């Protein structure tokens, strides 16, 4: 005879089964069109490269090997793959600079919004949200129109008499940098605003009462309190910057590749799918490391001093 | 003159930087839109106000096709994603932790964490093979790919809404002998509606905006509006691209505005 506990357990089991059934469509779709293909790609990174793209189903570490090294065509000597490393380095460098630049612009902006009267704050936030929801490609294209040789930035600088000849910004690292700062700026401002909005200004007043200067108040009171927002914003900017593809393609013009473009190249004219797969996994791991750093940081600042 | 009252909130220079930021955010967009109304052929000289390029874009059959395709994909992907996400959200909220709950959560949100270019090439290699095997190369691949990356975007607002909902109402309905389906349709669903609308709109916009995944998954002649524009940017650019971009921009602004007001009414 079934006891009450048994019935309850059966009921619980039935509920959990129906919960799995309910979530099945979402899980299946995400598996088929995201996670499954990523696993296939992981497998491809350990296979032999085919003659015209694609892979041959034979185990090989060449893909991973050529992320870092290149074999000389004639005498088989090994050397570091400078081309790849310089692109990885450019990706990391540009992403770090982008993060820093968005922070320098974004923090005062978020602070400015957070100190507006309550009823106008929403409007300022809305003004940040609009560019955020505008198509990335359109924003990249818009930036192109500003920094082109005949664009308004150059026209303005010439008109002001600062320069005589237009600056060649397009198709340089600067163009990518301008594009990324512009495109990812809202991703910095919004989380910063979220933590600045909660800032208790009585603490700042207390700081001034205790004879702290403005700089000391900013450094010793405001910055520590909004650190979670700074970390969140930095991660939100750093991660898409690292994987940027459209911005370097449109503004960097084929010469100044970033990791995303290098990956595409291997699946296109490079015809080295295992290398492309290995580079993709590398990019993913870099992103995951950044994310992990964020999660650990968030956990620490959540539980610690309040 | 009396000294200005000391304001504890103000930090020197912050206002100036903030204004500079807003100029930076809007100057490129305004430039882009302005040139869409340029009568001149070139992108450099101002030839007076004109709607010429909007007409040009609207008559271009490639643009019409791409716009229609974008709309079909976004509507299908957002609809399927919203239904799947709603079901998944119901299955993963308001429950005691059970085995696999954390797994489901991570699984559904994974597309958010993988760089788009990585997902795009992964889909490319898998779909390339499937296309050869099945011989089918229709819009299905694009819709499937879009649905997958739309699911987390639809899932998050729906889940957030569900977590704030009072379970007592549903229990009351069940106590009054409403069968489970009726409880869901008459109580849960109406309460959940704002979350579902937000999720759908988010998914729709995300799908409409996608460039990278579409660029890699599409077969020949399957340009969406963003991939069409990307293709045009490689060539000599005419203000026609500006006109398309401006129209697209207007659509985004309208959707964001609606979204903004829906969310504001709720709180």
TrEMBL record, chain A:
Pfam families attached to this UniProt entry: BPD_transp_1
Keyword Transport listed: yes
Residue intervals of the ABC transmembrane type-1 domain: 88-294
Localization (cell): Cell membrane
GO cellular component, one term: plasma membrane
Name used for this protein in its record: Spermidine/putrescine transport system permease protein
SUPFAM superfamilies reported in the protein's UniProt record: MetI-like
PROSITE patterns, A to Z: ABC_TM1
Record organism: Ancylobacter tetraedralis
InterPro entries: MetI-like, MetI-like_sf
Keywords: Cell membrane, Membrane, Transmembrane, Transmembrane helix, Transport
Gene3D superfamilies for this protein: MetI-like
Biological processes per GO annotation: transmembrane transport
Chain segments annotated as transmembrane: 20-47, 94-114, 123-142, 174-194, 229-247, 275-295
Family, as annotated: Belongs to the binding-protein-dependent transport system permease family. CysTW subfamily.
Membrane topology type: Multi-pass membrane protein
UniProtKB/TrEMBL annotation, chain B:
Main localization of the protein described in the UniProt heading: membrane
Record field: transmembrane: 12-37, 71-93, 105-127, 139-158, 191-208, 243-262
Protein name stated in the entry: Spermidine/putrescine transport system permease protein PotC
Function description: Required for the activity of the bacterial periplasmic transport system of putrescine and spermidine.
InterPro entries: Bact_Polyamine_Transport, MetI-like, MetI-like_sf
Keyword annotations from UniProtKB, A to Z: Cell inner membrane, Cell membrane, Membrane, Transmembrane, Transmembrane helix, Transport
Protein species of origin: Ancylobacter tetraedralis
Domain ABC transmembrane type-1: residue ranges: 67-262
GO cellular component: plasma membrane
